[in-house]
Each structure stands twice: as structure tokens, then as C-alpha cells.
Amino acid sequence: MEEKKEYIGFEAGEICNRNGCKGIIEVHDVEGTCSCHINPPCSYCTHPKEYCAECDWSAEKEQYESEKSRVKQKPWNFKIKTIDDLDKSKIDWIVKTHTHFTMICDGVYPDGTTKEEVREKVKGTFGGKFTRFENGRFTFTAYTD
């Protein structure tokens, strides 16, 4: 049977319930005034003001700790696919932007593949043209608009 978890308070007037604390969440007075009429939401309105006098919990400290731990996380690295990453056992390509109405398809194809087989895979909405088709590599300018 699952143990029912106590609700942890965050808003003013709620019971704290952190580690069994029975204190009531209160709100600090914050310096300044609301400037949402200029550029909402303002820092006066979004700054965490809640705290518990019983257990010394503070929404401001909790937010700071959360943001501090996020900074330590390993950054997400994005690897751009290059022509060397393509599968040479099939028709495979990468797309590069070119102009507002064309894109460049750089790719590879297995031996014995015809230009028409490759064209069928990479052609743009309005066709296109090969600028290279040799030795298992191709470059195709696709017309998209």
C-alpha cells in the first residue's frame, strides 16, 4: 500500500509540511513597486517572497538552489551531420539552405545508382538540377518556391 504524501505548501497561508513542519507560509514585504504597466511581468511581481518562519524555508533560496544546480548540468551538444556521416550503402543526403527559393542537397549513393533514382528522392517542389554526380557523391540544387 502506498504511503500518502503530504502536500507541501508554497502559497501564503498554506501549511509548510516540509519535513513535518507545521508552520504557515508567509510573505516578505518587498522593496519597490509594481511596474507591470510598463513591461509585464515585472520583477516586483515575479520575485519569490514566500517563506516559513518555523523551518527557515524560503522560496527565494529554493529557486536559487534550483538555478544553481541547472548551471552545473552538462550542456547539450548538438552535432551537425556532415557528408562523412552519411550511409554510402543507400541514397543518403544532407540539406543546406541556399537561397530563399532553393536548397542544396549534398549526398552519397551506392554504385550502380542512376541519376534519375537520386533525382526522385531529392527533387524539390519545382524540380532542380545536379551540379555534381560522380564517384558516389552528388550535389543537387532543389527548387522549393
Can you tell me about this structure?
By secondary structure, the protein is of the alpha+beta class. The protein has two domains: about 20-70, no CATH class; about 85-145. The chain is about 20% helix and about 25% strand. It has three helices and seven strands; from the N terminus they run E-H-E-E-H-E-E-H-E-E. The strands form two sheets. Strands 4-5-7-6 form a four-stranded antiparallel sheet, covered by helices on one side. The chain has a three-stranded antiparallel sheet with strand order 1-2-3. The mean pLDDT is about 90.
Describe the structure concisely.
The chain contains 3 helices and 7 strands; from the N terminus they run E-H-E-E-H-E-E-H-E-E.
Structural class: alpha+beta
Number of structural domains: 2
Strand order across the largest sheet: 4-5-7-6
Q: Based on the structure, what is the oligomeric state of the protein chains? A: single chain
Cα-based radius of gyration, to the nearest Å: 30 Å
- What is the strand tally? 7
**Low-pLDDT regions:** none
Sheet bearing the most strands, described?
A: 4 strands, antiparallel
- Head-to-tail CA distance between termini: 62 Å
Estimate what percentage of residues fall within beta strands: 25-35%
Shape: elongated
Amount of helix: 10-25%
Helix and strand element order: EHEEHEEHEE
Task: Compute the number of helices.
Answer: 3
Mean pLDDT: 88
